[in-house]
Write a structure and sequence with these properties.
globular; disordered N terminus; 7-stranded antiparallel β-sheet; 2 domains; single chain; alpha+beta
């Protein structure tokens, strides 16, 4: 998410915030963004989105935190806000120590909020803040040497002075020569505080998840085509089953893939952008055409991850102890997930698993995703969900920029999948395609539509899945999807 915020800020050439269109019309792109992002939030392990009340809190967090600032129509405010947001991203990216070694971000935020809300009296408060910082600097004391109260005062002063750092206007002039934008310290402080508050502490509720989405949208307000919130919220509600589905799921995918295909072409000429180049290298690895439906012949299986009370427990503990990864066990179940940047743990597990045979009715699974996370566990094979898949696509995720594999079961298998997921709510299930482990998400609710999506696969894994697959004919052109009238 942070990388995406930086890329949005750096690629921006114009500031514009459009007003919401009439509520009786749905903008297809905004609807698709809300729908797809919300589905992504639900994917994998997510203990915060468990029931309808959580879903409503998510929507409330989205609506309340996007509409809470009428100044977002002021280009000077938006520019300064987004520069503050980018400063927060850079600040947190530079701090990778243990949690106890990180600065008290709540205190930094408190100093920034005072500036953002206009509680600062100039020059008295800034002189006082600078005096606090200078006093401890002169005494040669490090922030970690201070007691909690003194440390908080120090970092609150730091937050206040951060909002008044010199050179902000000059930086804006450099970004947009000839601009009429004027540096706004309150906006800069608010943008920095919002992002720090969002990204330095994991979300604790569904409301927080919606709030994070809202802040991402505020950053996107720097783009020419800012989303229409009425349509975006309609898409989010449809994804959660809280509202009408105005655009079918497969059309949502087509709309987003068209958008990113256009953005790809529009940004080909950008040079010296390391992030952009990295993403282009990622896309160039795909043999499959993104957003295109393919005829496939997959055998999809899924089994419940075994728990500690099963007879496979001993073999599992012996393996994770041998690999020295027992600290990474997920409580209550026979599965570990850990960061494995070099792939050494995954490669070792491939060999070591053979030494630990399992009782009848159980099966080892293991794999490593594109983010370097290795998963090792044991699934129950009786009962085992089985289905054949004959049509699938590789779809570009609009928020992460990564590629997901998606398909829809036929009616018969969709009903079986609904029964299987209903029986495994609040449990993890391991899914395989043609016997190869894909992922092991936690089931938050019954999946009744038959749709499935797998994220975090490597380009090589996706290419292997679609090897020898043929493109389907007569695919629907997406240029025909623009605005839908609500009846």
């Amino acid at each position: 998410m942070k990388k995406q915020l930086i890329m949005t800020l750096l690629l921006t050439l114009f500031i514009g915030v459009s007003s919401a269109i009439a509520s009786e019309r749905i903008d297809s792109l905004s609807y698709a963004l809300g729908h797809q992002y919300t589905l992504g939030t639900m994917a994998g392990k997510n203990d915060l989105m468990q029931n309808e009340d959580d879903f409503k809190d998510y929507i409330r967090g989205l609506e309340e935190n996007y509409h809470n600032n009428p100044l977002m129509n002021d280009s000077s405010y938006v520019m300064s806000y987004c520069l503050g947001a980018m400063e927060a991203v850079f600040l947190t990216d530079g701090m990778h120590g243990k949690k106890e070694e990180l600065p008290p971000f709540t205190c930094i935020i408190a100093g920034l909020r005072k500036v953002g809300t206009g509680e600062i009296s100039l020059p008295t408060d800034t002189v006082a803040a600078k005096s606090v910082i200078n006093r401890y600097s002169r005494e040669g004391m490090k922030p970690e040497d201070l007691d909690a109260d003194t440390s908080c005062k120090f970092f609150e002063a730091y937050g206040t002075m951060k909002a008044y750092q010199p050179g902000l206007q000059e930086y804006i002039n450099g970004l947009l020569p000839g601009t009429g934008c004027v540096a706004d310290r309150k906006a800069f402080a608010t943008g920095m505080a919002d992002i720090l508050e969002t990204y330095t502490d994991p979300p604790k509720s569904a409301y927080d998840l919606g709030r994070m989405f809202a802040f991402s949208l505020i950053i996107e307000a720097m783009e020419k085509d800012s989303p229409d919130m009425v349509s975006l919220v309609a898409g989010a509600k449809a994804a959660l089953g809280l509202g009408k589905e105005f655009i079918p799921r497969d059309k949502v995918e087509e709309i987003l893939n068209l958008r990113y295909a256009r953005e790809y072409e529009a940004t080909r000429s950008i040079e010296d952008n390391a992030l952009f180049e990295t993403m282009m290298e990622y896309y160039d690895k795909f043999d499959v055409e993104l957003g295109t439906s393919y005829s496939v012949d997959w055998a999809v299986t899924a089994g419940t991850v075994a728990d500690e009370k099963t007879e496979a427990y001993r073999a599992f503990m012996d393996l994770v102890s041998a690999l020295e990864i027992d600290d990474d066990c997920i409580p209550g179940i026979l599965m570990v997930q850990l960061n494995d940047a070099t792939g050494l743990v995954c490669d070792t597990a491939m060999v070591e698993i053979e030494k630990y045979p399992l009782p009848v009715g159980y099966k080892w699974f293991y794999g490593r995703n594109i983010d370097g996370q290795t998963t090792i566990g044991i699934m129950i094979t009786d009962p085992l969900f089985k289905a054949d898949v004959h049509k699938a696509s590789a779809i570009l995720d609009p928020m992460s920029g990564m590629v997901n594999v998606e398909w829809k079961f036929d009616v018969k298998d969709a009903l079986k999948w609904a029964e299987f997921t209903a029986a495994n709510i609040e449990r993890h299930v391991a899914m395989e395609i043609d016997g190869v482990f894909m992922f092991a998400p936690r089931v938050n609710q019954q999946i009744s539509g038959g749709h499935c999506s797998i994220s975090s696969l490597t380009p090589e894994e996706i290419n292997h899945l679609f090897k020898n697959a043929k493109k389907e004919e007569n695919q629907t052109p997406v240029d025909t999807i623009e605005v839908i009238e609500i009846n």
